[in-house]
Structure formats: structure tokens, C-alpha cells
Amino acid sequence: MFEHLTDQPADKILALMSAYKADPREAKIDLGVGVYKDAQGRTPIMRAVKAAEARLLESQETKSYTALAGDPAFADAMIDLVLADTLPRDRVAAVATPGGTGAVRQAFEMIGMASPEATIWVSDPTWPNHLSILKHLDAKTRSYRYFDSESRSVDMAGMMEDLAEAKPGDVVLLHGCCHNPTGANPTPEQWDEIAATLKARHLVPMIDLAYQGFGDGLDADAAATRLIAGALDEVIIAASCSKNFGIYRERTGILMAVGRDVPQTRTLQGTLAYLNRQNYSFPPDHGARVVSTILTDEALRADWQAELEEVRIGMLRLREALAAELKRLSNSDRFDFLAQHRGMFSRLGAAPEQVARLRDDHGIYMVGDSRMNIAGLNDRSIPVLAKAIIDVGV
């Protein structure tokens, strides 16, 4: 049987991680993998997470299974974090998932069950794993223009022109904030136009919210998701706790589905639980318990929000410092977009051969499409990166 298997293409980001580790140069810079790092290059455990884990260690009396949908307290806390008071709770079905990726996968599975003929429209570019999972599921997909490579901002006209070809019932995959890989987000006015278009054309939005709190703040980063959830009858939301709680390895995510009324939402809840059973049965619980412990305790939540805000402000400061150094070296404002982007990522706009030169000549590792992780920088590496960018002619 195994003789019929063929080698699968290597994941480009994982391959980049391996190449970086094998590079003996001491001055090398890792801007590839999408993990937050502090100024010392560590991915620290947040204070509130440590405190919540200690509390669980003392109080937890069983490691038995949770429900198929996960702990209800986790769902309630996450729905409140993402949607606040946008909708009545009984219109939102939810299940815990193994990370945001698990939520995305379950969402695509649900779409396939509910409407196998629907086309899923995906931004160009998008997170590569979106496309990989969709291809694996043999889902119908089309891309819509999103990123203007000249202005390094959202190509709103191209996006609207492409979505005009979508048919009622098609699904539009959106990044709720901190677009990966570009870092370019629609303005509030553009989000209004997107929501109006989705509603007018009877399209179903699926929002991937992986970076809430990393852009402009917890509420600001959820504003687009809340706008769309409040405006449309049917909405799918995949959210991750990996980044904003720093619990990457705990694989903590949630899939939410907004129904038009309570009976439809009950059917959605049963469908999501069924999909969990078919895939992994009961979802992981440790990270979910940590998150719900933090979000339901006033002191822990305040400390978590304060540390998350420090992380967010730190990344904004790095963006501004890099943009300023590039302006100084280039004597132009062509890199100002770096300070306008949000989240961990920006697409620099370098050609593949320039990305290769950055790696080979300067020990700077970024993804081939020139997506770079801003959180991989610090005050010492910013001048090094800026000089290398100018040296290779970006």
C-alpha cells in the first residue's frame, strides 16, 4: 500500500526554520516563522498564563474528557472576547479546536457539508495553509485581489471587482485583523463597504481571527468581525489563542458559527460537535482552561491585557524604528508602509532573488514572498536589516 505514496512538497516556512538553525553565522536574523519573540529572542510565557496554570494545578481534580464541544466556560469567554454584545449568545454555536488551524479545518469541513457546491474565495495572497487545506479537501476555490504591490496597501477596487463575480451562497474568507502575510488591513470605511457587499450579494463571510490584540488593541482588532457578525445572518469565525495568550504549543482555538435564529444555531451546534467527533473526538482542554481562567478572573484578565498591550506597542515601535531607519538610508518615504501595517507581518516587496541575497549574503531569513516577522527584530538588528535591504536594492 505504501508504495503508492509520493513525497509531499516541503512546507516552505518549516524548511526555512531548518535552514536558519543550520546556519553557523552568529549575526543571522530569523524573520520567517510566525511566532512572537521578545528582544532577547525568546517566546515568553505570559504572567497571567503562569498564574492560571498554577491555579489549575492546585484545583483540578480530573483529567477526564470534556464535552465534544469543549468546556462551555471557554466558549462563553471567547465569544465575549471576540463578539462582546454584538449578538445574543443563543445565536452563536461554538466548539473548541486544536488551535486556530483546527478551527479553520473544521470550518472548511462544515462548509463542505452544508454547501458542497459553494466556492470559497480567498485573498491573494493569504496564509499558505488556507490554500493547502482547501486543496487537500478538494474544495472549490477562487482568489480575489487584496494587496497592491505598489502602494503596499489593500487593493480595494480589485477586491470589489473580483467579488462581484461571486455567486449567492459562496464563502468569502477574510482576515479579521493583521492580515497574514501582508500586514495590510482595510480601513474602517472599507470594512463597511465589504460588509455591505457581502450582505447585498448574499455571500457568507468566514473570518480567520488569529491575531486579536496584536494590531490596534483587543476591541479595535475585533471591530470588523463584530461589524460583519452584526450585519449578516450567517457568519463563520475561526479564532486562535496561540498568539494573544502565547500558548502556541497548547493548540487552543475555537470555531464559532452564527445562525440566523435559535433553531438554526442549535443545528449548527450539533453539526460542529459531530465534526469534532469525526476528526479528534474531544478537543484539547488545558489551554482552553487557562484562557477561560484568565478571562473570567478580573485580576488575571487585567494583567494579561496589560502584558498583551506591551507586546502590541513593542511591535509598533519596531515597525516605526525600521521605517525611520530605511527612510534615513534611502532618503525616500517608500518604506513608510511598514509603520502603517499591523500585526507581526509585513510583505516587504522584495523579489525572490533579493530575498535569496538577504539570506545568502546577510544571514537574514524571510519567506520567499518577502513576508517578514517584525517580532523577530530588536534594536540591534534593525540597523543591520535596514542596511541589508538597501544593499540588495529593494
Automatic annotation (TrEMBL):
Keywords annotated in UniProt: Aminotransferase, Pyridoxal phosphate, Transferase
Keyword flag Cytoplasm: no
Obligatory cofactor(s): pyridoxal 5'-phosphate
GO biological process: L-phenylalanine biosynthetic process from chorismate via phenylpyruvate
GO molecular function: identical protein binding; L-aspartate:2-oxoglutarate aminotransferase activity; L-tyrosine-2-oxoglutarate transaminase activity; pyridoxal phosphate binding
GO cellular component: cytosol
InterPro entries tied to this protein: Aminotransferase_I/II_large, Asp_trans, PyrdxlP-dep_Trfase, PyrdxlP-dep_Trfase_major, PyrdxlP-dep_Trfase_small
Record text on subunit structure and interactions: Homodimer.
Name of the protein in its database record: Aromatic amino acid aminotransferase
Organism: Limimaricola cinnabarinus
Classification of source organism: Bacteria, Pseudomonadati, Pseudomonadota, Alphaproteobacteria, Rhodobacterales
